[in-house]
Design a protein that fits this description.
This protein has 3 domains: 169 residues, no CATH class; 163 residues, Jelly Rolls; 145 residues, Sandwich (Jelly Rolls). The protein is built from 6 helices and 31 strands. By secondary structure, it is of the alpha+beta class.
Length: 491
């Protein structure tokens, strides 16, 4: 009696199974060794595969059992000896694959002249059933794929709505992740005209949304162009580029913003700075670094001093857009494609000028996050905030009196060209009606917002006036912690 492959095989059989040829017909018939010659005489249009103690054999070569399992149409029995062998095979097949043998056709009692016709009819029925099953599975698969696509599109649409909701309602903001501040007494890094400087960025790339370098002093004369390129050596390509004329540069932080946080794949990053101008560009530096790889380098790879560049790095959700800072510069070509809302952060508000002193001596509300324009009796309290963007179309500012014991306070905002900024302390300008929001009355600890929609403004520098006053008849400003926060510019 012929034994078919069982679960346990000898090591030579395993080796033969592993090394067997991989080319197997898409359809084949299993036969016992005792029935092989009789099956060949039927001249069937399907390959015959023999099972034995040493594995499966197809046309004299061994084939892997897993491939036989996938291609077998059924088992053909042509003799009693073959039938007995198939019974033994069924047990080994079940143990190995966990399923029963494919359909079998027993022609051991059929007369020789009718065997071929019966075998062909059986093969046709099996193939037809397989094709019909495959067609049904294909239809079901297409339906499942269509349903999956609809679910994916619905999920993408829902995420886009969520992103837009968070974006327009200012539910989140870019977070300052790392600040390498200038160190007192540290040398400046000079970038000569026509040269490049490369600074490796610290921290991870995932979610990076902004980075800033600090210009120690504005080059004089203000001629030339600064080119900033965010690169990934791991990817071998440039991720963003900023081209900034010298006339747009000022001493202090130069913030370079991306429209979206970088994607989830972590990569190394570096900032490549190129300068063309009449005099070198001087950049502030932070602490010294013992590893030359982290110091700024020339385009040729030579370290520039021992101190890293002063830098600030912000992060946001990977691949998600957030309102860019009003002080940030978007990459070349992204001004139109980028968000139309720009935000002034809490620290930007501290640049405000006190109308009473014409000095930058404003303070935040206790706890931070808002600029304190403490309401005053019998006069308008006012802070003047220089806007970093020319010609905003709309300005909205959150307001709140941040003490439950405080008085009712009226809030207003206005926008005027910077050229009209008062020259005398306490001299509040006369605002045109279209440049003034009107007064909004707020109870203490009640969150509110003041909005001003502006006509087309000239492309010049403008100031935002943040004003508070007591309602008519009120005299006490005790606990009048009136604050402005979350300034959003629509450009």
């Amino acid at each position: 009696m012929v034994e078919f492959v069982s679960v346990e095989m000898t090591e030579p059989a395993r080796a033969r199974d592993r090394n067997a040829g991989q080319a197997v017909p898409s359809s084949l018939i299993l036969v016992a060794d005792a029935d092989l010659e009789a099956a060949r005489k039927l001249a069937l249009p399907v390959a015959l595969c023999v099972g034995g103690a040493e594995g499966f054999v197809l046309e004299g070569r061994g084939v892997p059992a897993d491939l036989v399992h996938g291609a077998a149409l059924g088992v053909l029995v042509l003799s009693r000896a073959g039938a007995a062998a198939v019974e033994a095979m069924a047990a080994g097949w079940l143990a190995r694959f966990g399923v029963s043998l494919p359909d079998r056709l027993d022609l051991s009692e059929e007369r020789a002249g009718a065997r071929r016709e019966a075998a062909l009819s059986w093969i046709a029925d099996v193939l037809l059933a397989q094709r019909q099953g495959a067609a049904r599975r294909a239809v079901a698969l297409m339906r499942d794929m269509a349903a999956l696509r609809r679910e994916h599109e619905a999920m993408q649409a829902a995420f886009a709505r969520l992103e837009a909701h968070a974006f327009h309602h200012r539910l989140s903001e870019r977070k300052l992740l790392m600040a390498l501040a200038p160190v007192e007494g540290s040398p400046v890094a000079e970038l000569p005209s026509g040269a490049e400087m490369v600074q490796r960025l610290p921290g991870g790339s995932v979610g990076l949304s902004d980075l800033a370098v600090r210009i120690a002093e504005v080059p004089q004369p203000r001629q030339g162009v600064l080119t900033c390129r965010l690169e990934s050596p791991d990817l071998g390509r440039e991720l963003a580029e900023w081209t900034l004329p010298a006339a747009q540069l000022s001493s202090g932080w130069l913030r370079l913003s991306l429209v979206r946080g970088l994607e989830e794949d972590p990569v190394g990053l570096q900032l490549r700075l190129g300068w063309s101008g009449a005099v070198p560009l001087r950049l502030a530096t932070a602490m010294a670094h013992p590893d030359p790889r982290f110091r700024p380098q020339t385009g040729g790879g030579t370290p520039v001093g021992r101190h890293v560049l002063a830098m600030e790095i912000w992060h946001y959700l990977p691949g998600v857009r957030a309102p860019a800072s009003a002080t940030g510069r978007l990459p070349d070509g992204e001004m139109e494609a980028g968000p139309g809302m720009r935000r002034l952060e809490a620290r930007d508000l501290l640049r405000a000028i006190n109308l009473d002193t014409l000095a930058r001596d404003m303070t935040p509300v206790q706890g931070g996050g808002a600029l304190l324009v403490h309401v005053m009796p019998e006069q308008v309290a006012c802070a003047i905030l220089p806007l970093p963007l020319a010609g905003p179309r709309q300005v909205s500012v959150d307001v709140m009196t941040r003490n439950a014991k405080g008085p009712v306070v009226e809030y207003a905002i206005a926008v005027l060209p910077a050229a009209m900024r008062p020259k005398r302390p306490g001299a509040l300008p006369d605002f045109p009606e279209e440049a003034h929001s009107g007064w909004v009355r707020m109870k203490p600890m009640r969150a509110g917002q003041v909005t001003l929609i502006l006509p087309d403004l000239p492309a010049a520098e403008h100031d935002l006036y943040l004003m508070t006053r007591l309602p008519p008849g009120a005299t006490s400003n005790a606990y009048g912690w009136s604050g402005f926060s979350s300034v959003v510019l629509h450009v």
